Amino acid sequence: MAASAPPRLLPPPLPSCWLASGADTSEACWQLALECGGDGVWDWNIGDGKVFYGPRFNALLGYDNGGFGDDSEAFVNHVHPDDIGRLRQHLRAHFRDEGTPFCCDLRMRDPNYAYRWMQVRGQLIERNADGEPARILGTLRDISQWRQDEAVLKAQLAETVRLNQQLEGAQVQLVQSEKLAAIGQLAAGVAHELKTPIGFVSTNFGTLERNVGDMLGLIAAYHATAASDDPAQALAAAEAQYVAADIDYLREDLPALFAESRDGLDRVQRIARDLKDFSRVGEQDWQFADLHRGLDSTINILRYEIKHKAEVIREYGELPEVWCVPSMINQVFLNLLANAAQAIETQGTITVVTAVEGDKVLIRIADTGSGIPPDILNRIFVPFFTTKAAGKGTGLGLSLAQDIIRQHHGRLFATSVPGQGSTFTIELPLTELQPPDTLRPADTGINT
Fold first, then answer.
1. Is 70 helix (H, G, I), strand (E, B) or coil?
2. CB of 421 within 8 A of CB of 369?
């Protein structure tokens, strides 16, 4: 016996309310599809103000089918008063140009006057003979949950921003601590370097003061002979004073005192110039800078810390000026050079090498210190990591130095052999970079 054909599934009949609205069968099917998808549909005949609100539309607002109303006034009466102006503004824009989508988020009330967020969409499909809007079809979607989720996300974002601000504040305080440690160490070294030239200039001025006093007294004695009643006796007294003043010695000593004093003042001026070059006061913007000048000024202001431990060997190559923030790069030099000096226990060498390789500038700072064990080497750039005793370092120096170089689109890395020394290499691009918006002159210290 032949197999019977499977029963054919027929679509359910369209609800009578759809056909009663005046929609043809195809429109009714389209509206039914939207309702099945969860959206309520509406069909507004603008000429007579009548609106067909589908069953799902009514249900979204808590009404039985047809309970919402049948005209545009019913819709407006359910919209929150604060949202009516925005609704009309969107409608007018769409009526002027139906190519502009009509979409408006607003609050609508249910029968108990509880408001929910809804999204109303529509499309003008017909104009009358005068070109005026005649008919618009649209949908209604409940977006209350979406708005609640959005509010939660905004609150979480605001909290994240607040926590980030707190974190930035803590970072600023830590950086300030590192900066103060650097200033303290620099101040001690610079004060010692200033003490020597200022000391002998002060001593020389004491000697000059006495010598000038003797010479002025001698001049006064000779001048007095002209007005004396006994010129011969006055002249003899002046000659005796001349011998006591040892003028021949003064002729040799005074030029030497002036030369020593001038040299001391030159040294003070040079230290001040090196400090200014290091800090690059007033130069916090991106610019082309001479890295050798920055290295030299940094080495000079660290002279006191370095000179008792190491000889500095400069092996400078031919470098073009590099696009950077000079004060920030000098802070990196300060950190690496001071760490190199601290790594040398008794006496050693610090070698500073510069070169161009391809499209990069290389600066290598190598020391003959104790070196870094492998298990520590891969952690030295981690923030707060330090091998120094409590109170001797924050563990931020190398981390901040690496961050500065990264902001310059470069690299900072280290190699080391325990017992032989370490080498820190800075790579900076030669191409002119646009300064990133987030780049701010950072403060970095010399304690790691």
1. coil
2. yes
Closest CA to 338 of 410, 383, 278: 278
Separation between Cα atoms, residue 129 and residue 103, nearest integer Å = 26
Q: Which fold has domain 280-429?
A: Heat Shock Protein 90 (3.30.565)
DSSP class of 384 = T
The three-class DSSP label of residue 447 is: coil
Do domains 16-142 and 280-429 share one topology? The answer is: no
Cα(149)–Cα(305) distance, integer angstroms: 60
Domain 16-142 sits in CATH at: 3.30.450.20
DSSP three-state, residue 358: coil
Distance CA 397, CA 382 (A): 10
pLDDT, one tens digit per residue, over 334-381 is 889 989 998 998 889 999 999 999 999 999 999 999 999 998 998 888
pLDDT band at 6 (very low <50, low <70, confident <90, very high): very low
Cβ neighbors of 136 (< 8 A, separation 6 or more) are 43, 44, 46, 94, 102, 122, 123, 124, 125
Residue ranges of the domains in the chain? 16-142, 176-274, 280-429
How far apart are alpha carbons 83 and 286 in whole angstroms? 50
CA gap 88, 102 in Å, rounded: 11
Residue 407, classed as helix, strand or coil, is: helix
CA 399/CA 389 separation, integer angstroms: 18
Residue-wise over 385-411: b if at least 16 C-beta within 10 A, else e? Answer: ebeeeeeebbbbbbbbbbbbbebbebe
